[in-house]
């Protein structure tokens, strides 16, 4: 008799109970965002001429590498252009959702010993794994149907029932492949961190594989689930074969994963955990070394992200004129006119946005001491001969270094991908000008950590406001002072605007003042 | 000489009074047991002593110096083991021990470290996420014993240890005492207290309700076992 799946129903209910809020948010985000993106297209491409023009920019190899190969050039519609430009991002989002979702209910539950309590009850050996993959399948199914339904409801030019479902199902099916592969990784790796790390590495490799395949026009695209998902050619050929193949892949991966699970010990991974260092390296010793050690992962991760972000914005530079010409919304966003070239306007605009993004890791480093405090680890540090100012000072020092590295990499990535269209010196100047604004954000964060540690998260509200005002503000015609309220809004937007040193100096001073106050208060207050 | 002197120590969190006038003194070279029911204020007192919490009123000194103003200098002479040892998942035990030793300032004694690793049977190459509660405590204990401290502040340091390790722990405390060093030991394990303590303070609802040498306490117990005596002290009168 096979008892491997005993109590599957109860277990599924238990997962639903724990998961429904988070999954509902993910589902709403994926389906909702695809609707929002689609809704922009009638405004972006009001006439057929513009649709054709936009499509021409998509054939640029850099764009193909980023978003996939073009199709259906002879019968372009708003919907088919939307799909060619947007689908890849939703495939990636669905992949991320599934990595987190499946990991949360497999290895992340097993590692701290929570699953063990279930296994001590009359619950089957594979109940947990099967329940997780079943739940993931259901979530992906809902994502597919809801996305398709919203696209149909919007009914932008060229929408068809088959197209809407091809789009939605591609998202869900790619998501399911990642659910299956994560289930397998959860059997192989012995830690939840290992599973998500391997999951994201897989995601990155598949994306690159697809880019290589699409640019070279070869079979590599079909090996990658992303490439396969795009081959549905939504709103054109609406192929169903890729979706069926993806679903089979996901199912096969799941079956293999469950077979591996049945054969292994609870708590162990197939890949044995490697032995670590018995001694701390020279670098880890001392407060500064400690701070570097707990921050460096994020530091390198975000560095790579910034380089890619810069490069992806840079890849459209060559086509920017074609992109924006005759397009009022775009011109408004870019703030064209007034004697500047479109390219300059574009560079000025993306530096605002990219710098706000670059502020995120810097702020994370500035508030890292608070998350250490919340986890109850600071008392052991401060029970030793460590001055509080020194420890927080070390975090701030790394945050400052991080800010410079982030802006440098953004400018470098942008310059490299724009391949000579833009002088690198000018880009560096435009990027580094934002440093005082980033420091001011870190200063606000330090102030919160010092005075109202429980409200540290408020700094993200400041970020949210900044992003909305500076990005959407141009489209919504907000008054100038709304932008000037934020640190980023007061920075001269090079190369379009004149460089003035005063706002930079004022912001730097304010940042220094905020930070000093925050650190001083941190020294005086209770820890823990 | 008094290593720890606490007088009228008050700590309020908003409107909640956690410590309501704690008085306590610990002499050099003694093992002072710090007892009391859960939530009575033991850990809060210890955190105030370490300058991690800022007291609302009263005095608190170690080595004759104010614990808040001189926290960093004082900590060079103090070793601390918390009740809940929270570590960094991606550090190995060995790395954490070295980190803690390096944060104390002076040069770490490598031989001492190896010796304690062996004594406590701790594998320093494992990541902290894989350690059980007892093994996390061992990390903190090895770091504490391998440091060159004069005062050991131990907050329920053995709640996750097995009897063998408990014995190792007790032997080490004996050695520390023999060197004329001082220990403040918060514990719920009566046999441990009975074996190790020279003097005792019992805290309840933020106040020290009983204190004195082991001999005093035995006199007050009037033939009851220590455990019976403590339970009667823990219960509100």
Could you explain the architecture of this structure?
The complex is a heterodimer of chains A (528) and B (237). By secondary structure, chain A is mostly helical. Chain A has two domains: 87-263, no CATH class; 284-524, no CATH class. In chain A, 73% of the residues lie in helices and 0% in strands. In chain A, α2 crosses α4. The N and C termini of chain A lie far apart (53 Å). Chain B has a domain at 1-77 and 152-161 and 186-237: 3-Layer(aba) Sandwich (Rossmann fold), CATH 3.40.50.300. Chain B contains nine helices and ten strands. A six-stranded mixed β-sheet of chain B has the order 6-7-8-3-9-10, sandwiched between helices. Chain B has a four-stranded antiparallel β-sheet with strand order 2-1-4-5, with helices on one face. Chain B is globular. The two termini of chain B are 34 Å apart. Classes of the chains: A mainly alpha (528), B alpha/beta (237).
Number of helices of chain B: 9
Assign the CATH topology of the domain at 1-77 and 152-161 and 186-237 in chain B.
Rossmann fold
The end-to-end span of chain B amounts to 34 Å
Number of domains of chain A: 2
- Specify the structural class of chain B: alpha/beta
Shape of chain B: globular
Write the element-wise H/E pattern of chain A from the N-terminal end onward: HHHHHHHHHHHHHHHHHHHHHHH
Characterize the main sheet of chain B.
Answer: 6 strands, mixed
Structural class label of chain A: mainly alpha
Structure described in brief:
By secondary structure, chain A is mainly α. Chain A is built from 23 helices and no strands. Chain A has helices spanning 8-44, 48-58, 61-67, 78-105, 107-110, 114-119, 127-154, 161-188, 192-216, 220-223, 225-230, 241-263, 287-314, 320-324, 328-334, 342-374, 378-382, 388-417, 424-432, 435-451, 458-476, 480-484, 502-524.
